[in-house]
Amino acid sequence: MTNAERKEIDQRIALLERGSALFGRFGGSIPLVIAFLNRWPTTVELYPHWQVGESWKFFLSCLLYLLASLALDRAISFAKASLDP
């Protein structure tokens, strides 16, 4: 791999890392916005048998965005490690 290719890959990884940082910072607000736009209840409604109402969609989406953020951070660290000599 030439130095120009390595520099270009480093720049792309740096850009992806900045995007990942923004996603990690603001990604948790995406499910909240979606919940309010779709009028999902954001509170847990407890019924006699501890059943959760429609709020499971909100909590599941928050968890999925958290896992996506962690996976993206992990992928970036693997990409950086593979480029180090």
Describe the structure concisely for a colleague.
The chain crosses the membrane at residues 21-38, 58-76. Keywords: Membrane, Transmembrane, Transmembrane helix. The protein has helices at 3-26, 29-37, 56-83.
The amount of beta strand, in percent, is under 5%
Shape annotation: elongated
Low-confidence stretches: none
Helix content: over 70%
Write structural notes for this entry.
The chain crosses the membrane at residues 21-38, 58-76. Keywords: Membrane, Transmembrane, Transmembrane helix. By secondary structure, the protein is an all-alpha fold. The protein has helices at residues 3-26, 29-37, 56-83. α1 packs antiparallel against α3 (56-83) and α2 (29-37) packs antiparallel against α3 (56-83). The longest helix has 28 residues, at 56-83. The model has no long low-confidence stretch (mean pLDDT 81).
Key phrases:
85 residues, mainly alpha
Topology:
Layout: H1 3-26, H2 29-37, H3 56-83
Helix pairs in contact: 1-3, 2-3
